[in-house]
Amino acid sequence: MELIFKWEWLPGLGKGLVLTVELTAACISIGAAFGLLLAIARLYGRHVIYWLASAYVQFFRGTPLLVQLFMIHFGLAGWGIRLSPLLSGIIAMGLNTAAYQAEYFRGAIQAVKRGQALAALSLGMTRWQTIRYVILPQALRLVLPAWSNELVYMLKYTSIVYLIGLPDLMGVGRTIASSNFRFFEIYAVVALIYLALVLLITFALRYVESRIRVPGLGTAR
Amino acid sequence: MALLAIDDLHKRYGKEEVLRGVSFELERGETKVIIGPSGTGKSTLLRCINRLTEPDRGKVWLDGVEVTSPRTNIYRVRAQVGFVFQDFNLFTHLTALDNVRLGLIRVKKMGKRDATERAMRELERVGLADKAYAYPAQLSGGQQQRVSIARALAMDPKLILFDEPTSALDPELIGEVLQVMIELAEGGMTMLVVTHEMGFARSVADEIIFMEKGIIVEQGPPEVLFTRPKKPRTAEFLRKITEFYGESG
Known about the structure:
The structure holds two protein chains of two kinds.
Chain A: H1 9-44, H2 47-62, H3 65-75, H4 85-111, H5 114-122, H6 127-157, H7 169-180, H8 183-212
Helix pairs in contact in A: 1-2, 1-4, 1-7, 2-4, 3-4, 4-6, 5-6, 6-8, 7-8
Chain B: E1 4-13, E2 16-26, E3 31-35, H1 42-49, E4 57-62, E5 65-66, H2 74-79, E6 81-84, H3 96-106, H4 112-125, H5 141-154, E7 159-163, H6 171-186, E8 191-194, H7 198-204, E9 207-212, E10 215-220, H8 222-227, H9 232-245
Parallel strand pairs in B: 3-8, 3-9, 6-7, 7-8
Antiparallel strand pairs in B: 1-2, 1-4, 4-5, 9-10
């Protein structure tokens, strides 16, 4: 069987790519903001706050992303809460990556030496100032390698949203393939586009890492 | 009235009672040195003074304000008490200049230009103006400790607490830190210093406090404590430590 490739596939895949990128950007940002709060809640929170945050993290890390997506999209509909596929996708994946990012942030915050906070407090800084100006700037530098991995994972995981009918890169590819039965070629092109995107992100984040690197602080690479 | 008054301080970690009723006073401009075996609560005592560690019982007064009162704004107190740590604790992600400037900008709400000017003056005072843009990892231990002293000085503290400031240093770097501390003492800074440097204690301290097992065993001027201590335990400790660290320290 010969391999074929048609330029006419590309505009459709391009639109799918845009949706994939938007979806990834939306959920990774939501996940970062919420994940940071969860990490702080698990580290500094007491009683109810700590337990809620911990239960949340356990649940979202302990169950499949696809199940979470279906619960939100199809499950909530049963309760009369009908979310658009796009909104369901963003919420499900944002909530999921928040749990993972929370653990990365927590690890990084814990990796900041205890003396750093003591020194900040001894200057008269409040707890919040200490976190904001001393702990987080160091923790965020330390977390970047793990966070880069999470971003790459999420980019690839967004491909499951075709299952709730979203025309992302994967979804468009599937539609084209099921009309002309060129499954191998089309999924190969889809795969290459994902790969290009992953490489682009990896290099961009390495550049960022090198720009914010400080001597003596987490040089994992 | 004494600048710092400590009254019957107690602190317990689990079963271990680290401080078992410590009381003393420190006058303005005075330097007192606390000596004693490791694990006798000296560091805990310093941390209780600005409540980096909460004491269980007892009172601390700074310049007429009861530090240990729950109504006291502890952040304001801490801004007035410099703290120099054994392992420096310079902020890893900041240059020497930013280390000194951070408290001025965030706690004292000083403008950036004034803060920079002030920070540079303090770095000059400890002889490190040329290292203003170096990160802690690029400095020697002695230089890091001098920056941390500059960081404390910049806040205009009423008192500086030194927690074994030279214990983490290579022997050849100890001198430069002690020199800065001697200049501070001579300049009238009020200082409370935990150290094993007996040479420093002897030449700079107005009074030596010998602590063991959470209590003050004996205190007095260095010439008395070093030559004719009242308690046999003090004599024994001083003999051992001078054997170990040497006379000039």
